[in-house]
Amino acid sequence: MEEQRHSNPLSLTFSLSLLPVLSIQAAAIQFTKEPKSQDALHGRSAMLRCEVSDPADITYSWLHNGQPLEHSERRFVEGSNLKFTAVDRQLDAGNFECVAGNSATGEYLHSTNASFNIKWLESGGVTLKEPASEGDIESSAPVTLRCHIDGHPRPTCQWFKDGAKLTEKSHQINNKERTLTFASASPDDNGLYYCCAKNAAGHVCSNSNFTLNIIDKSFPRPVVTPEDQVVLKNEEAAFHCQFTAEPAPTLEWYHENELLVNKSRVILLSNGTVLITQVKPRNTGTYKCVGRGLTGSNVALEASLLIADLSYDTHIPLLTSGPAVPTTHSLTRAGEFPCFPSILFPPAVRLFAKLVKLSPYCNSTWHK
């Protein structure tokens, strides 16, 4: 019995010593909600949540990549949660932690790390990737354009030429690199190119485009263009035409779609000129100069030939070309005075009425 008495006080003392420990463990901070990693859209709102079982005497703070969070109007603590009015793919990259502290006991507890998988899409321009500069673009050589639209996840890209969508079947498109390649570019590829792309964040098109303008050196380019001619009957007419290309193009003349060859009154000169002597009515019409390149490409230039009609009323005085001497005609009433200068060699015509200079054009009208 005495042994039991001695042992009871020890047992009671041990039981009492456990009470403060159990009391401290009951007051320990426990998270009921911790921030979780999640998807977010750049520019959209988001929330990281943090809660404890017993919020009495609890204060909350947040860490970003292990450092105290910098608060702003865009990102701030609301209650115990961290609120984002507009997620930023650069400023909000990394890990966030919630820290709960008990001001009464001085205890602090860190949550698990959480981060955003930020989805974004940003527009950009279309640029020349290969060759290095536009001045280095050559016909029949490779040309590569790049679309600078970027995003996460990687966007799928589409290419357009002059508003028409290009397909991978007919064009060399690399979606990973977002490039469009012409293995052997030609003038047929010339046009305005732009790109559009989409992903989970949305859909955008390039903010600046690229105009491809390939000059094929074998393609004939006009140097001298024929001009319309009006001559008198039986006079001479000449049309001049020249093209340049590498190698030199061939040149052909057509009259009303009939190929011209040297004849007695039609002479084809080596410099591209066609000469028609003693022009007759059958020689009038449309003359076409055609330059043909090595690749079969051709360019056609047209000009017309007319015979001047000098029919006029014989009762009206006629000024003809001649020496620079004054010619005077008296008029007794208001009227018109037509003149018919030579088409090929127009004279200097000056009309005066009472020593007042009139319009230099024919059919001038004046009053006495």
UniProtKB/TrEMBL annotation:
Gene Ontology terms, cellular component aspect?
A: neuron projection
Q: Where does the UniProt annotation place the signal sequence?
A: 1-28
Tell me which Gene3D superfamilies the record gives: Immunoglobulins
Q: Which CDD domains match?
A: Ig
Q: Which UniProt keywords apply?
A: Disulfide bond, Immunoglobulin domain, Repeat, Signal
Q: Does the UniProt entry include the keyword Signal? A: yes
Name of the molecule in the record: Inactive tyrosine-protein kinase 7-like
Q: Which species is the source of this protein?
A: Notothenia coriiceps (black rockcod)
Gene behind the chain? LOC104950038
